[in-house]
# Entry
Amino acid sequence: MGMNLAEDRGRNQDLGALEPRTLLESIPDFAFIFGMNGKPVAANSAALRMLGKTSAELTRMSAQQLLELLQAGEAEHPVDLSKSIVVRALAGESVRHAMRKIRRPDTGAATDLSISASPICNRAGQIAGVLMVAHDVTELSALQHRVQEAERHHAIGQMAAALAHDFSNVLDTIGQAAAVLEMSKAPQERHDMIRIIHTAVRRGAEIISGVRGYLRTGTGETGPVDIRQVLIETIELTRPLWQRAGVHLVTDLKPVRTVTAGVADLRRAFTNLIINGIEAMPDGGELTILCSENNNKVIASIRDTGTGIAPEHQGRIFFPYFTTKTQGTGLGLSGAQKILLSLGGTLRFSTAPGKGTTFIVELPVEQKRQNAA
# Structure
C-alpha cells in the first residue's frame, strides 16, 4: 500500500527533527563530527568506547590531542595535522577510504582504519563541519598481507625452480672444465679451462645476486634509479623462465635519466610484468621489452604475443585477488600498479584478442636532475 502525501510529509518532518547524536548512533563504525576549528564536537558510542572518553571529555579535546591519543600515523610516520583528513574535508574535499594506523586507547591494539570524511554544509551551502567515519580493517589488512606474501612466494618458487636448473648448469660447466684442467698439460688448453671456470663462477655469482636483490625487502626509501639498469637486471633474473618457456626476447633499452624510486620495489614490479607476459604465452612466443624517455617521463613497455585479455576481464585485471589463472592469487598486476602509483607513475595496458598485450609503465624523471638539465 502506498504512503499518502500527509504521511510522507510527517515522516520527513520527523527525520528533520532528528539530532546529530541520533544519526551518529545509527552508524555501526566509529563516527565523529568536527567543527570548523577542527575540534571534535560529537561522536557515537562506538567511538567513545574506543577512545575511553565521555562525550564531554571529547569536546574539550583539540584535534592534535585526539591524534596524540590515537597515536595516529600514515605508513610509518605520524599524521601531519595540517594535512589531516579533517582539514582536507573542511577545505571542501570528500575523502574516501584513506588508510590510517592508530593504537586503540581501549585495548592498546594497533589498528588499521579505512576513513572517509565529508563536509557538512548548512542551508546556505556553506561548510559548517565534517562528518568522519572510520571502519576497522585490521583483519582485512592482515589477510591482504598474507595473500601478498603468498603471491611473492609463488613468484619466488617459479624462479627458484628455473634458477636451480640454471645454477646446476653453471656447476656442471665448472666440473667439466676442472676435469679437463686436471688431465691437461697443454698450457693453452689449461688457460682456456681456467677462463671458462672464471666465467661460470661470475655467472653463478650473478644468479645469487639477482635472487638476493629480488628477496631484499623494500624499505620505503627512494633515491635516483636507472630504470634501464633495473630492466637489465630483471631480464637476467628471469632468464631461466623465458628460456625454458620457449619465449624469444627482443629488447631495445635506450639510455634514460633517473627516476625517484626504490630499486627493490621497481624490480618486483617489472618481475611481475615479465612473468605475466611469459605466462600469457604457454606455447612460446615473443616478449618485447622497450625503454625510452619522452616529455620528462621514462617509459618502459613489456609486450607479449599471447592471446590478449578478454573484453570482460579488462576492467578488472588491476583489482586485487582477480585472476584467471588456476594457481594465481591475483596480486601480481595489482601489486605492480600499487608500487608505480606510489611513485607518481602509471601502469596501463593495450590488448587485442589473438594479438597479445602490452603493459606500459611511465615514471616522471627525477625532479632534481630534470631541473639541472
In short: Residues 57 and 341 are 41 Å apart (CA to CA).
